[in-house]
Structures are given as C-alpha cells and as structure tokens.
Design goal:
Largest interface: A-B, 28 and 16 residues
Structural class of chain A: alpha/beta
Radius of gyration of chain B: 23 Å
CATH superfamily of the largest domain in chain A: P-loop containing nucleotide triphosphate hydrolases
Strand order of the largest sheet of chain A: 6-7-8-3-9-10
Helix content of chain A: 25-40%
Distance between the termini of chain A: 35 Å
Number of domains of chain B: 2
Number of helices of chain B: 15
Largest sheet of chain B: none
Shape of chain A: globular
Oligomer: heterodimer
Number of helices of chain A: 11
Strand content of chain B: under 5%
Number of domains of chain A: 2
Distance between the termini of chain B: 41 Å
Radius of gyration of chain A: 17 Å
Largest sheet of chain A: 6 strands, mixed
Structural class of chain B: mainly alpha
Strand content of chain A: 25-35%
Order of helices and strands of chain B: HHHHHHHHHHHHHHH
Chain lengths: 234, 358
C-alpha cells in the first residue's frame, strides 16, 4: 500500500533521515521503533507531507506522494495522528471531529462517519460538547485517533500514541490500535515503548540515527537479544 | 438563508426610524448627531471587516493601507479619469484584495504570524502612506484631496450624497448591515472552523487536511476588500481624503483598538467598539475644547490628550478585558445563566430527595 524508497530528509542544515526504505501492505500493522532523536517523527512528517523529502521515492497505492501538499495526502487516504495528539484545545470534541472531515470528499459523508466514530468510541459521544483541551490524556488520544478516522483513511499514521500517558492508559491506547486493525485500517505506528508496541503489530522497522538498522516480524524482534538489551532494558 | 431573531428585528426597526427620532429630539443639531451616527456605522463596517481575520490570530496593522487604497483609487479615478465610483470602487476593492494576497502569500507560506505578521503589515501601511504623500501631484500629498463635486453634490452617477444626511445615514446603515451579513456567513462556514483550528495549531490543522495558506488568503482578501469598500464609501461621504484620516498607521491602530475594546469574537463587538471609540473621542474633544483648565495646564498639548488616553485604555482592555466590552458582557451573562441553571437543578434535586415535588 505504502512504499518508501531511499528517502532522505532533514531540517535546515541537518539531515535526519538517510536512505530510508520501507513498505506497508494493506491490512498490516507496522511499527517503527527507535530511541529519541532516531528520526521516527520526521519519517511520519515526510509521509504526511508536512516535511518535504530531499531525495527518494514515496508511493501510496502506486501514486507518487512526493512534493504533494499535506491536504492532498489526506485526500489520498493517509491520516496522521501527530505526536502529542495536537487537538484543537479550544474547540469542542465534535468540532475537532468535524475538522477531521475537512476535505471536500469527507465533508459529504460527515454525519455517517460521525456516527461510526461515536459507535467506536462512545466515550467521545458523551463528551461531544466538551472543549478538547480539558479532557484527560487518554481521552485526548482517543479524540485524536477519531479525528484522523473522520477523513475516511486507508492508512493511519500514529506518532508516539503512548507519549505522556500513565501506564494503565497506555494499555488502553494500544487496545485502540488493536481495534483499528480489527476495523480494517492499515496502521503505521511510531513508538519508543518498544516492548508494548511489538505486541500489537505484525512487523517492525528499527530506526537508528536516521537509518533503518533492521526489520522483521514483531515476534522475531521481540525475541532478539540486541533489541531487548538496547530498548527494553532487559 | 440567515434567520433574523425578534430582538434583532426590533433593533433594525429602531435604527430605521432613528433619523426621525433625532429630528424630533434635537432639531437644532440634527446634522451633528446624524454625522456621529454615520461615522459610527461606516467605521463599524470597516472594523467588522478587520475582525474577520483578527479573530483568527491574524493581527494585521495593514488595514489602514486597504482603507487608503479603496478611498484613493476611487477618488483619483473620478478626479483624473472621470470614472464613476460605481466602477472606481470595484477597482479599488480589487486592488486592495490583490495587494492583500501579494503580502499574505509569502507570510502564510513561511508561517509568519503573530508579532512578525503585525510588523510586516505595519510596514505595508507605512509604504502606502508614503506613496500617497509622495505622489502629491495627484493625491494632494499630506494635505489630502477632495473628490470633484458633481452638480449640486447629490448624484447617483457620481455616488455623491453628503449634503443629504438622512440619505447618507441609510447608505451607511445598509453598508453596515452588509458587513454583519458577511461576518455571519463567514462565521457559519467551514472556513471559520478551519481558520480557528489553524490559529490553535497550524501543524495539526495541516495534518487533518486543511490547506492553511489558502484558507488564510481567502479571509485576508475578503477582509482587505471590505476595508477598501469602507474606505471608499467613507471618502464619498466625507468628500475629503487625507493620509491621516483614511490611510496610514493611525487608522490601522484605531481599527485594532476599537475591535479589541468592543470584542473581537462576537458579531456586534466591532460595532460596540466603534460606538465606544467615537463617543470617547467626541467626548474628549468637547471636554478638552471646552475646558480652560485643561488648556491652561497642557497648552496646545491638551489636544493630544485623547491619544494618550487611548493608549492607556488599550493597555487596560488587553489586561482586564481581553474579550472586549461586548464579549465580556455576553460571557458574564452566559456564566450567570449557567449558575442559575445549576442552582435550580440543585434545588430540584434536594426537593426530590426530601420527597417533595418541585
């Protein structure tokens, strides 16, 4: 579904990604794991068009995504749940969801998708009129995911969904990811919480200082001594 | 379509008959009071135009340029090309919108918002003012100029109506209502949500598929166009344009101050701001002119007192009433309603707990 080939990207005078190649097949859940500063967030920003790649190829269902504005990428079926949730804090939950369906094609199906999202997350329906910024961290993450689903995506990018959440809430959030898969979404998740995320994905890529170090089935990586030592403190 | 509530209809009817009420009550100084009302309505329209973008965190100090472009384009085309304002105004409005797009595009692309946006637009205002002053053969320089009077000063063709104050009042009223209509249309559009979202978190807005630059450009062009239209009609009413009265930094700052004072986020906030600033400046002018003591203390500097008071008030408003006069009143009322509702719920609940029917 999504394919990246030899992607380079960076910020002014600083290169963050070096020749990154990866694939995500339809229906798969894939994780990108790595330490702080490995380039995980940059990678997602490149995919969703917030940061242009300086070299390489990027395709979604064989349509090139290079040099395409973020709003077009949303229309191509990719939704990004940014790091730190990034809700619109002074808009109500429902307005936040409304913004998720901003693209013209999504706008037409707003009511239908809103029902769907509320059926997935009844909690949000209870809180529909509340300002998004006043909810708990876990609820905000739920709202951020729901907002992403409002555009009717095929592929959902999740950036560090466990960030800043209490361990018990982290569990619930990963449960949400599992439910998204059950609903048929393809998921690409970026995480530092390596041991937890490897339990809910099929495959993973390990990113180290901007380069893919290794990749493979989640179970294999979970069992690998190197990863256990470096990222799980075992 | 927009539905109009009953209180609004009553208010409209009152505004409709206001000139005749004034004629009855103040027959001697009818012209003066009408003039005050017309000023309030015209400036309200301009302020409403500014608030279209101001409410989304796009604090422009460039709108004095747009009112100036509208006014000068219309008057110069009339005076030197003989072009009726019916064509001159659309041209002025279009030029203002184009200038707004030219300045806005790089700003929004490079994500210049907040302080830097304010400074950049401030430079635009100064640029336009310098052009007006420098091009003095046509514009009259810093002394300003007048549209050439056509016939007896009342003409549909030349869009001149100043001698008839009642007519001028209705023209200003119509313009003001048009401004409110535009505000409501924008307020109910998807663009408003998009702009609100972008002002809270630009990255998040882009990542949900909002074309932030385009949304901002749209509202900027609309806002500039409204201010240019307001400036042009203002010129036709005043029958005089000067860089200080309709173009330049003073105008920009007045706009910002009035809207902050009135309330940026509510429909009638800019109008309340216009009433407040007009009454304040007239009141100060009358007091200062009439007071021998003030003149004795400050000499001719007394005439600059109003500016000093303006500045002081602006600081106070920003600190204590960031929602403006009307915004604060509405907020307070909503809160007291909520408290009342909660209170009655509680009494109902306690009555029920005591086994009594409320």
């Amino acid at each position: 579904m999504l394919e990246l080939r030899d992607i380079d990207a960076g910020y002014d005078g600083f290169q963050a990604l070096f020749g990154v190649s990866m694939q995500v097949a339809a229906g798969e859940a894939v994780a990108v794991i790595g330490a702080n500063g490995a380039g995980k967030t940059t990678l997602l920003r490149v995919i969703s068009g917030l940061l242009p790649a300086s070299a390489g190829e990027m395709n979604m269902e064989s349509v090139s995504l290079r040099a395409i504005a973020p709003h077009r990428i949303v229309e191509a079926g990719i939704a990004h749940v940014p790091e730190g949730r990034r809700l619109f804090p002074r808009l109500s939950v429902e307005s936040n969801l409304k913004m998720g369906a901003f693209a013209p094609a999504a706008r037409a199906r707003f009511a239908e998708r809103l029902d769907y999202v509320y059926s997935l997350f009844p909690r949000l329906k209870e809180r529909r009129a509340q300002l998004a910024g006043t909810m708990s961290g876990g609820e905000q993450q739920m709202c951020a995911i729901a907002r992403a689903l409002m555009s009717g995506p095929k592929l959902v990018l999740l950036d560090e969904p466990s960030m800043g959440l209490a361990p018990v809430i982290v569990h619930q959030v990963f449960d949400l990811v599992r439910r998204m898969r059950a609903e048929g979404y393809t998921v690409l998740v970026v995480e530092q919480n390596v041991s937890q995320v490897l339990k809910i994905v099929d495959r993973a890529y390990l990113l180290e200082v901007g380069r893919i170090k290794t990749s493979g089935p989640a179970a294999e990586l979970l069992a690998s001594d190197e990863i256990r030592k470096a990222y799980m403190g075992l | 379509m927009i539905r109009i509530s009953r209180p609004a209809l009553v208010g409209l009817a009152l505004l409709g008959v206001l000139p005749f009420v004034i004629r009855l009550l103040f027959s001697g100084s009818e012209k003066y009071y009408l003039h005050l009302l017309i000023q309030i309505l015209l400036w309200s329209f301009i302020y409403t135009g500014w608030s279209l973008m101001g409410r989304f965190g796009l604090t422009s100090l460039g709108h004095g340029a747009f009112t100036g472009i509208g006014a000068y384009a219309t008057v110069l085309l009339w005076n030197f090309a003989g072009l009726t304002p019916w064509l001159g105004i659309p041209i002025g409005v279009a030029v203002a919108a184009i200038v707004a797009l030219l300045v806005g595009y790089p700003c929004f692309r490079l994500r210049i918002t907040g302080h830097y946006f304010a400074l950049l637009t401030l430079a635009l205002t100064e640029f336009v003012r310098l052009c007006i002053v420098g091009w003095r053969d046509y514009t009259g320089g810093s002394l300003g100029t007048q549209p050439k009077r056509y016939g007896d000063g009342i003409s549909l063709y030349a869009m001149q109506f100043e001698p008839d104050r009642v007519l001028s009042y209705y023209i200003a009223l119509a313009l003001w209502l048009f401004g409110l209509y535009v505000w409501v249309r924008v307020d109910r559009s998807m663009d408003r949500y998009a702009l609100d979202a972008a002002s809270q978190d630009e990255d998040a807005a882009a990542s949900v598929g909002i074309h932030v630059t385009r949304e901002r450009l749209k509202v900027t062009a609309l806002s500039a166009a409204m201010c240019a239209l307001g400036g042009a009609v203002f010129a036709q009413y005043q029958m005089y344009i000067g860089p200080d009265t309709i173009a330049g930094l003073g105008v920009s700052l007045n706009i910002v101050f009035a809207v902050i004072a009135g309330g940026m986020w509510v429909l009638l906030g800019p109008t309340v701001g216009a009433v407040f600033t007009q009454v304040l400046s007239e009141g100060l002018r009358v007091t200062i002119q009439g007071s021998a003591t003030l003149k004795a203390w400050f000499g001719s500097a007394a005439f600059a007192l109003d500016t000093a008071i303006y500045g002081l008030l602006l600081v106070l408003f920003i600190i204590y009433m960031p929602r403006g006069i009307l915004g604060t009143l509405i907020e307070r009322r909503r809160r007291s309603d909520a408290v009342a509702a909660r209170g009655s719920e509680r009494t109902n609940a306690s009555l029920a707990a005591n086994g009594k029917r409320p």
